Structure formats: C-alpha cells, structure tokens
Amino acid sequence: MSSAVGTKSTPEETAGRTSTPEGAGRRRGITDWRPEDEAFWERTGARVARRNLVFSVLSEHIGFSVWSLWSVLVLFLGPEYHVDAAGKFTLTAVPTALGAVLRLPYTFAVARFGGRNWSVFSALLLLVPTVLAGIVLRPGVSYGTLLAAACVAGVGGGNFASSMANINAFYPQRLKGWALGVNAGGGNLGVPVVQLVGLLVLATAGAAHPRLVPLVYLPLIVLAALGAALRMDNLTSLKSDRRALREVAGEPHSWVMSLLYVGTFGSFIGFGFAFGQVLQVQFHDQFDTPVKAAYLTFLGPLLGSLGRPLGGRMADRWSGATVTLGAFMAMTVGTGVVLAASREHSLPLFLTGFVALFMLSGIGNGSTYKMIPAIFQAKAEIAVAAGADAPGAARDARRRASALIGLAGAVGAFGGVLVNVAFRQAFLAGASGDAAYWVFLAAYGVCSAVTWAVYLRPREGRTLLV
Hints:
Helix content is 77%, strand content 1%. It is mostly helical.
C-alpha cells in the first residue's frame, strides 16, 4: 500500500486512482469506483473500503471524545473556579449545540473537498479546542472564557456527519448497514473513553490537574490526521446533492424521523454529557469527590455505544419501527424508575434506571437509522408499482436516504442540548432533577405515540413498512 509520494502501490489498490503533480501535494483520488460490481468489489473495492473505514473510525472516535471533553472537565471545576451546578450544565450544553449545527455543513464538505482531505482537516481542527482547554483551565479564569473554550469543542460533533457520508459512499448497498454501524459505534465509543481518561487522571494526578486530560489527546489527534493523510482516499465520483436535502426537507417523514432521533441520539449524547454532574449534584452526600462520580460515568455511554449495533440487528429481524417503539416504551419505564429513585434518594435504583436509559437509547439509535432507508425503499416500491422506472426510483431512494441521515443527525443532536437545559433548569429550581425527569417521561411518551401512529397503527391501505 502506498504511504508516501513516489512509492508504488499494488494494482489492486491503484485501480482508478489518480494524483495531482507532486508539487501540488498528495491528493489521492479514485476515479473508478464500482462497489455494486461484485467482481470489482472482491478484487479491489473491499480492501480499499475497509482501509478507509478503519481510519474513519479512528478520526470519528477522537472527534466524539473531543466533543464530550467538557463532560469530564466540569468534574475538575472545584470551588476555586466559582462555577455552580447550573453553570456546569451550560458548559456541557454549548458544545452539543455547536456540534449539532456543524453536522449539515460537514456532510456536504466531504463531497466538496474529498473524504481524505476533509478527514485530515477536520482531525487537525480538533487541536484548537484541545489546546484551548489546556490553556484556559486554571483557577481564577473567567466563566466567559470557559464558556468560549467549551463551545469550540463542538467541532468534534461535526466529524460524525462527514465520516458517515464518506463511508456511505465507499460501501455497496448490501453492506452499508454493517459499515455505517461499525463507523457510528466506533465513534460513539469516544464518549466513554474520554470519561475513562478523566477517571485515570483524577485517580492518579488528582482534581488539581485537569490539563492532563486534553494533553492525552494531542498526540492522538496528530496520529489520526496523519493516518487519514497517508491511508485514506478521495472518491472523485462523490458529489454534493443539495437538491436531495431540499426534497427531504419537504417530506413529512423526514421531520418525524428527526423527532425520533432527538429522542434516541439526543438522549444518548445529552445523558453522556450530563450524567457525572447529575450524580455529583443529586447525590452529593455519596459523591463528595469528582473521582467517585467518574468511576460510574463511563458505564452508561459504554453500554449505549454497544447498544447501537444491537438495535440495528434487532431492526433487521423485527423491523425498525417495532424496535424503535419498544425502545421508547422501555425508556418511558426507565425514566419512571429514575424518577422514583430520585424521590427515594436511592442510588442503586437510580443507577439501574439511568444505565437502562443509556442502553435503550443506543438500541433506539440503531433502529431509527435502519428506518430511514426503509422508508424511501418502500416509497420507491410504491412508485415502481405505479409505473415508475425501477433503477431511477432506487437511485432516488438512496439519494434521499443519505440526505435524511444528515438532516436527522443534525436535528437529533439538538436533543442533547435540550437534555442539559432541562437538567440546568431543574437544579436551579430545586435540589433534584425531578422536573427534568418528568419532561423526559412526557417526551418518550410522545415519541412512542408518534412511532405507533405513523408507522405501526393498523389501517386500511397501509403500504409503508419500516
């Protein structure tokens, strides 16, 4: 495999690849990419796609870690920083918001600049919030400075969208579910991993050394960028399809799916950012030091990340809508358990309910993403039955599914902002998060009702099966 300008690649790896002159720098571009051609895939495609997937997962994983960096750093902010609980929830909400906003432009950036090129740039961009956090974290720093540094960490949230759009283009339709599941799951694991790094620093160096957490990620970011530069490729056939985004924006199912993704991924990322703070504030008598809370914060995001591919597999077997409805109904029950535990001040019951919410939100992540292509595939089948061209209908279904994955991912990430805002307001009003748990209870009830009414309610003439 080629790893530097001037080295030779094997015929399998160079099939269809062109490069600009050496003076222009290395910009690998694959001009002939036919993943649906099984002979091409077996001879060349699978190996190249797998290599790009590996380095895409690495970059996205570190992006998620940087995005959720402040969910760890707030645990280090003791009394000398003069930041109350409400202020800490705001510090975890602002990177979530910026990450959500960036997901749409990051989706289009892959087609505009190339998957390899954008992976290198977006990885190097992670150095900005990481270095900034290392500089500003000291007692006496103003809250506004902390807020600005936390907000910039939102660039890590955009990496998911560009990574998914890039890998989606490399794999044939029959393998997209597996490839996107691996890519998304590997990225989501960045949340519990950064919390484990925080735990390691707290347990060894202590709460007085928060700068060690971003310091750990500086060489990893450089390695991710270097790996993308040397081992990833640009697909010259990948084109930005803004028309598809306009089309899905006018499709009612797009906004239904975005709502469901707010409930699933929004819960996962919101709880992942807030869980450590919730434990410290609500059970301060049992978590009087940050390290005690850090011992538990990684468990929920870890199980939620592992639940995502499980939800996809379950959706393959029982349909995405059925699994999504089951996940939301179970999340309603889990929230009821958390609310009861909060009122009884029962830590074991509280942890049980919250860990279940993480796992169920992960399962819901997988099943909702499975629903998106199924919706447009069903619509294509209806169009073909009415006389439309079958290949054209299939292409339109793929275009619109890809566009909706980007749109739903952006809207869904705002759910994480809402979770942190709900906790902030609840703890401002009282000593517990009960008000927030009531909001979550109502939200999951609404999502359950919408899933059933739109996709599962028996009615005459139903043809949409997801």
